[in-house]
Amino acid sequence: PERRIRAREGMRVCLQTLQSRIVAGRKGRRMPSYDYLIVGAGLSGATFAREATDAGKRVLVIDRRPHVAGNVCTEEVEGIQVHRFGAHIFHTSSREAWDYMNRFAEFNNYVNSPIAYFRGEVYNMPFNMNTFSRMWGVVTPDEAKAKIAAQIADEGIENPENLEEQALSLVGRDIFEKLVRGYTEKQWGRDCRDLPASIIRRLPCRFTYDNNYFNDRYQGIPIGGYTRMVERMLEGIDVRLNVEYRDLMRDEPDVAARIVYCGPIDEFYDFDLGTLEYRSLRFETEVLDEENHQGVAVVNYTDREVPYTRVIEHKHFEFGRQPKTVVTREYPVSWKPGDEPYYPINDARNTALHEKYAHRADADPKVVFAGRLGGYKYYDMDKAVLAALELARTELGAAS
């Protein structure tokens, strides 16, 4: 009996020692708190977060800004949903994207029909029969086609070498001078002769009296704003705002097993291969003590002398009847590191540099890049959602 007691006691001590070693090992390794850390609470990040959470993954979303929804963020001012970072109209021909977003918001029937203002003249956009009738007094599609064809022939450009020549070879002199030149030069900060022809691959002309800017089947604005919609996408998910990725990694290096990074890919790698370039924007927003300032949500200012490219009157996105109105003037500006990046400059230099970063990312087992900044690619909203859904299918399928 004494030998059996000593044997049992020895076994108990061995088990305790083994358990303490396991616990110590776990403490040293610090198991990740989350399966996925998603950097960026915009549409791409929110879509992936929703899909991963619904698949049973533990998810943390962070954003350096004090709000979710990224550049589609809206905030209420005077009872009006204000698009803080420029006009955003959700439009798509994809039933998958439309049905997915309608899970989180009810969309109104807003149709984007902007106008262009050029030195006291007002034109409908996109270029359509209302535009041509206002510009030349033509009435029929054949008259408009003949006018454009004659102007193209007058230019005699067979091999366009820059943006100006490309535009002239597509729509002729009148449309280029009044509706393309000034807006484009403001947008890019360069003369059209100094811009590559590839920027404008086509300038669609519609020979119908139709002011709907988009050809997509589905179009609208989420009632109550985009921020509320993204908040619903992130319901039940841990979100931390005003958080820098590098600060989090310093304080919680084992926070997640895998990272979905929706920030700038060159910033992730400390710009050590070089800095990718962007165009940026500056916004001036004011409340006006009037019910209706310009009669439409978006007016493009196409002459070079006006410093802003467009004026947005936000209440018209939701057919508002508030006694006051809110307008925003949008100014394209040069970008430098530290500024908010908006439009990737996909010229030869930046495309080659991004390919180098993308090649490095392919070899990184812990991180995947997503969204406009991660992919250095301009996305319409529906394309951002669809890309995030495809990434989720790839990631979560592999993870399972």
Describe the structure.
The protein is of the alpha/beta class and 400 residues long. Helix content is 38%, strand content 19%. The chain contains 13 helices and 16 strands. The strands form 4 sheets. It has a 7-stranded mixed sheet with strand order 7-6-12-13-14-11-15. Strand 12 and strand 13 (310-313) form a beta hairpin. The longest helix has 28 residues, at 2-29. The chain is globular, with a radius of gyration of 27 Å. It starts with a helix and ends with a helix. The relative contact order is 0.19. Residues 13-29 have low confidence and may be disordered.
What is the fold's blueprint, element by element?
Blueprint: H1 2-29, E1 34-39, H2 43-54, E2 59-63, E3 74-77, E4 80-83, E5 90-92, H3 95-101, E6 115-118, E7 121-124, H4 129-136, H5 141-155, H6 163-171, H7 173-188, E8 218-220, H8 226-233, E9 238-241, H9 245-251, E10 256-261, H10 265-268, E11 278-288, E12 298-301, E13 310-313, E14 325-334, E15 343-344, H11 348-362, E16 367-369, H12 371-375, H13 381-399
Parallel strand pairs: 1-2, 1-10, 2-9, 6-12, 10-16
Antiparallel strand pairs: 3-4, 5-8, 6-7, 11-14, 11-15, 12-13, 13-14
Helix pairs in contact: 2-13, 5-6, 6-7
Summary tags:
single chain; seven-stranded mixed sheet; about 400 residues; alpha/beta; five-stranded parallel sheet
Shape: globular
- Give, in order, the helices and strands: HEHEEEEHEEHHHHEHEHEHEEEEEHEHH
- Describe the strand arrangement of the main beta sheet, using strand numbers: 7-6-12-13-14-11-15
The radius of gyration computed from the alpha-carbon positions, rounded to a whole number of angstroms, is 27 Å
- Count, helices: 13
Record field, number of beta strands: 16
> Oligomerization state of this entry?
single chain
Biggest sheet layout: 7 strands, mixed
Helix-strand category: alpha/beta
Poorly predicted regions: 13-29
Strand content: 15-25%
